[in-house]
Amino acid sequence: MIQFRIQPDSEIPASTQLFNQIRFAIASRQYPPSYKLPSTRALAMQTGLHRNTISKVYRQLEEDGFVESLAGSGIYVRAQGHEGGSRLQSPIVKKHPDDAYKLVQQALDEMLSQGYSLNQARELFLAEIDWRLRCSAQVLVAVPTHDIGAGELMVYELELALKIPVQLVAMEELTAVLDKTNSATVVTSRYFIGDVEAIAAPKAVRVIPLDIYDYTKELNLLKTLPKENCVGIVSLSSGIARAAEVILHGLRGDELLVMTSQPKDAYKLQAIVRRAEVIISDQASFPAVQAAVQASLEDIIRPPKLIKVENYIGTSSINLLKRELGLS
To answer: What class has domain 14-77?
Structure first.
């Protein structure tokens, strides 16, 4: 069970601390689709917050499309985008050709039992395959302008993993881009899936949500750092930097000083290099961090420990996306 921690003396409202921690748990797949969230009573006992405050957080999560409330049952993480139920959650395994043949037979038998003719089934199969091939030919990453760095990070990792061109589109411009095409695949982080779905749905364009890395290894390291250490967070995504700051504050309170920067902000980056004992950076930002440390070696007594986070997108999410695009 995930342990949520609230710092009562923080300048960040308690409801915001909890909202950000739950949203991160959903975005990093620690709370997968259909997962039942803890009851308000259980969460109140864990965090010390009033149940009314937790109910308010749950309502906000529901309004933002992250969860759904089922009367008499509880609050559940909502399946989002082109997830196809459990189909996108199953592990990828190699199939024997005979298995694939049986799957086709079963699907065809089911369609015939529903009254479709062989010609109709053939046209439907071909249309679906053709549509998926055309969708896979154009992959768009959509994020809001205020966190365009998250999109740059996704494009960076997707192009490395998929070996195909990926186009970055600001969410505010997505409608105009989709008006010019009817065969694209839009991908985005679960942080933004609700807004992207609302734009793409009327265009009949599929949207695939990407899970972000859960940062478990990095968070476990930060739990062990001595008090009064300074931690630098460097990322293309301003949103990830803010989320990391909130989560780290929940873990350690004021025991650690946290400084954040994007790699292009030379002034902030130099300040982190000069002050931090540990700097955590995403893969795309790491060369800039290394260069800043190298440039400051004469001015610092002890260089900071550098930790490169290997991925922003969860590995399983990358593999599932490959399968959806026909690249496996």
So the answer is: mainly alpha
pLDDT tens digits for 225-276?
999 999 999 999 988 888 888 888 888 888 999 999 999 999 999 999 999 9
Q: What fold, for 216-309? A: Rossmann fold (3.40.50)
Whole-number Å distance between alpha carbons of 75 and 184: 32
d(CA 2, CA 290): 34
Which residues 6+ apart lie within 8 Å of 327 measured at CB? 136, 162, 163, 164
Long-range contacts, stretch 55-63, CB < 8 angstroms, 24+ apart: 56/15, 57/15, 57/18, 57/19, 57/22, 60/15, 60/19, 61/19, 61/22, 61/23
What is the tens place of the pLDDT at every residue in 18-51?
A: 999 999 999 888 898 889 999 999 999 999 999 9
- Residue 105: the pLDDT is 81
Q: Is the pLDDT of residue 109 over 90?
A: no
Equal CATH topology for 134-211+315-324 and 216-309: yes
Give alpha helix (H) positions in the chain: 14-27, 40-47, 51-63, 97-113, 118-136, 148-162, 174-178, 193-200, 216-223, 238-252, 266-275, 286-295, 315-324
Average pLDDT of the segment spanning 279-289: 95
Average pLDDT over residues 112-126: 81
